[in-house]
Structures are given as structure tokens and as C-alpha cells.
Design a protein that fits this description.
This protein is α/β, with parallel strands linked by helices and 256 residues long. It contains nine helices and five strands.
């Protein structure tokens, strides 16, 4: 299989190098396939170009329902991620119907170091999109190259251990439950992000919740002025308003 941008003689040398590495790995591992896999992964990480830049380490993949009933929880997620200094990503941002949906999801997961997965609506839902995308994210962390294995994720459910009924292989993982409460969403994400990213300081969970309540009142007023409905905001509009609020908070702090 050729490599883009390489001449035929370069491809030949590259293939020869690959065969040499395979033989060397086999000799070093002395038949231990597990050891050979570990060495091979380390070697691949060293020679592979690093595709994950600053954007990767600031991007959070949100995997959740998008119906109107769930919208308040979704908006709480988006607000908290942005307020904590990160970039939320989700399938709603892709409007181009020319590419298969799965390819969009796979590309987005590859571009995000962090993931928020909500399984609270899976029971009784025959589509199972959320567990499937969680599985893709875990697979990317396990088998990905470069910084992919540093992925981190949090899983939400409505009630404790509700996922055991439909995804028993995930049993034993530390999940969070929100009981359909925006406050729990805000506080749990706020507590998870510093641990996952090593961020030194963020506003406390209670402080962030009070700020979110102020944001909701502000958002309602902004939407009424613009002739919009909060529950009908597009993905782009939700991001724009949350980013505007973050700037508003920074300006307010400078003036006080």
C-alpha cells in the first residue's frame, strides 16, 4: 500500500524497513505476542506523525439524546464545558449530508481527547446510538495511536447502575447519575474535568451552578429579544450564546 507524497523508491525502502522491524520485534519478543504488541505500539507512537495538537486536548465529544425533553440537560453540558475552558463537539455540528453519519462520528471521536456519554435514555430505545458511540470512544482509546490512548470520558445515567440491564460488560465502571437534574450535570462535569485534564483551578461546583442559573435567565432574555426559543436553538446558536456569556463574565470580573 503506497504512501501519499512518497516516490516509488522511498516506498520500497519504507516497506523494507517495515519487514526489518517485524523480524526484529519477533526476535526481541521471543514468541511472546503480547510483548511484541507492546513494543510495536511504542515504536509506532515514536515514528508516527503527531496529529493531535492543542485542539485535540481541548475538545470534548458529547454523546447524548437531542430531543426537546433532553435539551435542558444538553444545554447544561454545553455551558459547563465552555465555561471550564473546553470546546464541546457533537453530531449536531455536522450539517453536510454528503458523508455517512458514522464517518462523521468516527472523525469527531478521533479529534476529541475527552468524552461525555449519557446512557439515561437507552432503556426502551431500540436505536442504542449512545452505547454504540461510547464503545467507539473506548475502542479509540484502547487501539488508537499517539495521544489517543490518553482519552478520558465520563458516563452519565439517570439512576445508579441502570446501564447493567443493557450493557453488562461495562459493569464495575464508575458512572455518574443525574436524575434528570441540570444541577447534577453542571457539578459532575465540573468535578470530572479537572481530574481528567489536570486543570489546576475552576470555579466550585456550587458557584458554577449559580452562574448557570444566571446564564439561563440571561439566555431567555437574549432569545426573546432576538425572536428565538431556547428549546429550538441550533447547535451554532447554543455555542455562540455560551461563549458570549463567558466573555461577559470575564469583563464583569475585570470591572469589579
Amino acid at each position: 500500500m503506497g504512501s501519499p507524497g512518497l516516490k516509488s523508491w522511498q516506498v520500497g525502502k519504507l516497506n523494507a524497513l517495515r519487514k526489518h522491524v517485524e523480524r526484529a520485534l519477533a526476535a526481541i519478543a521471543a514468541g511472546d505476542l503480547h510483548l511484541e504488541l507492546i513494543i510495536g505500539r511504542q515504536f509506532a507512537d515514536q515514528i508516527a506523525p503527531v496529529a493531535e495538537g492543542k485542539a485535540y486536548h481541548q475538545s470534548v465529544f458529547i454523546n447524548c439524546p437531542f430531543d426537546d425533553d433532553y435539551k435542558p440537560l444538553f444545554q447544561a453540558m454545553v455551558f459547563t464545558v465552555i465555561r471550564c475552558g473546553y470546546l464541546p463537539r457533537c453530531a449536531k455540528e455536522q450539517d453536510d449530508s454528503s458523508d455517512p453519519r458514522l464517518e462523521k462520528i468516527l472523525a469527531m471521536i478521533e479529534e476529541c481527547r475527552f468524552g461525555i456519554h449519557d446512557l439515561s435514555r437507552v432503556e426502551g430505545d431500540p436505536r442504542f446510538n449512545m452505547p454504540f458511540e461510547l464503545g467507539l470512544f473506548i475502542g479509540a482509546k484502547r487501539y488508537g495511536r499517539g495521544a489517543q490512548d490518553r482519552k478520558s470520558f465520563v458516563v452519565f445515567e439517570r439512576d445508579p447502575h441502570g446501564y447493567d440491564k443493557f450493557i453488562s460488560d461495562f459493569s464495575g465502571h464508575d458512572t455518574k447519575f443525574h436524575n434528570n437534574q441540570e444541577k447534577r450535570i453542571v457539578q459532575e462535569i465540573r468535578d470530572w474535568i479537572p481530574k481528567a485534564a489536570g486543570k489546576k483551578w475552576l470555579p466550585g461546583g456550587h458557584e458554577l451552578w449559580l452562574e448557570y442559573r444566571e446564564f439561563k435567565s440571561w439566555l431567555k432574555s437574549k432569545c426573546e429579544t432576538a425572536g428565538l426559543r431556547v428549546k429550538k436553538l441550533t447547535w451554532a446558536e447554543s455555542l455562540e450564546f455560551a461563549v458570549e456569556w463567558k466573555r461577559h463574565v470575564r469583563v464583569s470580573k475585570r470591572l469589579t
